[in-house]
Amino acid sequence: MSAAASLGRAGRIVLKIGSALLVDRQTGLRRDWLETLVADVAAIASSGRDVLVVSSGAIALGRKVLGLPHGALKLEESQAAAAVGQIALAHAYGELLGAHGLTAGQILLTLGDTEERRRYLNARATVGTLLSLGAIPVINENDTVATTEIRYGDNDRLAARVATMMSADLLVLLSDIDGLYTAPPASDPTARHIETVAAITPEIEAMAGGAASIFSRGGMKTKIDAGKIATAAGASMIITRGDRMHPLAAIERGERATLFRPTANPVTARKRWIAGHLNTAGRLVVDAGAVRALRSGKSLLPAGVRVVHGEFGRGDTIIVADEEGREVARGLVAYDAAEARAVAGLRSAEIEAALGYEPRAAMIHRDDLVMERHGSAGGVATPPTRAEARIDEPLAAEPRTAQEENHAG
Ligand code: GLU
After folding, report:
1. Quick check: 380 pLDDT over 60?
2. Nearest-angstrom CA–CA distance, 47 and 25
3. Could you say which of 5, 41, 173, 264 has the lowest number of CB atoms within 10 Å?
4. Comparison of pLDDT for 333 and 349, the residue scoring more
């Protein structure tokens, strides 16, 4: 499949836009260009598909507005610049998307929002709600509070994490180079452009060079890192030039790009992640009606839960068993054990009274469930629904940087 076909088919797309595309050092925000990008986004959204924008540019824009000097900034200066730039950026997206009748919703993430499961579920729920309400999430790192130790650092990897968190089909990295080459094209006349990468092998990584690669400002290395995260979770990735007008339409008409194919079957990736949890934290015994609902691809609602065993937190992996004690499914629970006990057997209307706040609809959302078959972990008893086929990443199996290792929850 070509990059054009991949973009044409993807139902959920994460689009990463680099600072250099958005901000001109002399003149500030490149509004004319952004208008054409937003028009492309609007065209995709109008075909009923989801687009999430991961936009850099806060620091670059803020330093221009504040008149900070060129060159490296102190951490506090870049945080101050981000505070100023982000508001301008958000305003521009809000206005330009608004001109197409679209609503922008700003999400500022810190590393822990994707690395810690409970925060991850919260972030995913918020972004998912925005999408279901028809808004376009505009996402950036929360640079004003993220210090060196706790940051993604680059929006390539942030975008990959968002793509996996939201089960996107495709991650598009708009860059200043039209894809991956066998060698640095500026200095090596024999460098060949690579159209498709079936798997990110050590040879491919070697082509990307080190962090200070001349391939692009963000560096091809961070893009390959992003590719590893995205493709391992079942998403494709496209790298192409973003500096022309209507950069997404350019991909669709077949301008040069590199397409990275997903390495894992997305269903398998997610099922493996959930089914692969060795330490389940608890067990829910559910009635026969709930078992039938689960087998037909539905979420587990509190009403069907008879007994809650164990002490678990929100987002922990727990077992769902029938009244004979047979394991029916495993999943990530949306309530902690105390809440689960409080709402077990209750219908939605009764839950608010019991908890004192609005209930989360499902005890385990179907996106977070893996059915058991013949008692063997990881089996899928029902054909995957569309929701199940939108898979997110196997967190535990993902390549992690040393920084993530240190700071993951
Ligand atoms: N979050 C940074 C900003 O908005 C950009 C990080 C990056 O370009 O990778 O300025």
Report:
1. no
2. 35
3. 5
4. 333
Average pLDDT over every residue of 53-63: 95
pLDDT tens digits along 183-199: 888 888 899 999 999 99
Atom of ligand 1 nearest to the CA of 60: 10
For residues 287 and 145, membership in a common domain is answered with: no
CATH number for 33? 3.40.1160.10
Atom of ligand 1 minimally distant from the CA of 62: 10
Verify that 242 and 275 share a domain, yes or no. Answer: no
Q: Count of domains in the chain? A: 2
Pocket of ligand 1 (CB under 6 A): 18-19, 56-60, 82, 140-141, 143, 154-155, 218
Same domain, 230 and 279: no
Cα–Cα distance, 182 to 196 (Å, whole number): 12
The HSE-up count of residue 324 (CA atoms within 13 Å, CB side) is: 5
Please tell me the residue having the least CA distance from ligand 1 atom 9.
154
Q: If DSSP codes are grouped into helix, strand and coil, which group holds residue 258?
A: strand
Other beta carbons within 10 angstroms of residue 378's beta carbon come to: 15
Q: What is the pLDDT of residues 315-338, one digit of tens each?
A: 888 999 999 999 999 998 999 999
In this structure, are residues 269 and 169 in contact, taking their beta carbons and an 8 Å threshold? Answer: no
User: Ligand 1 centre from 316 Cα, in Å?
Assistant: 32
Q: Which of 130, 68, 129, 82 is nearest to 110 (CA)?
A: 82
The string of pLDDT tens digits covering residues 6-26 is 999 999 999 999 999 999 988
Task: Point out the domain boundary residue: 263, 295, 326.
Answer: 263
Domain boundaries, position 124: 3-263
Please check the confidence at residue 378 and state whether its pLDDT lies above 90. Answer: no
pLDDT of residue 373: 57
Do 337 and 369 lie in a common domain?
yes
Residues 287 and 227 in one domain: no
Atom of ligand 1 nearest to the CA of 154: 9
Q: What's the gap in Å between 237 CA and the centre of ligand 1?
A: 19
Helical packing angle, 117-132 and 155-165, nearest 10°: 80
Taking 90 as the threshold, does the pLDDT of residue 83 lie above it?
yes
* Cα 152 to ligand 1 centroid, rounded to whole Å: 9
Centroid of ligand 1 to alpha carbon of 61 (angstroms): 10
Instruction: Give the per-residue pLDDT at 115.
Output: 72
pTM to 2 decimal places = 0.70
CA atoms within 13 A of residue 178's CA, in its CB half-sphere: 15
Q: Ligand 1: which residue has its CA nearest to atom 5? A: 56
pLDDT of the residue at 268: 57
* Residues 226, 328 within the same domain: no
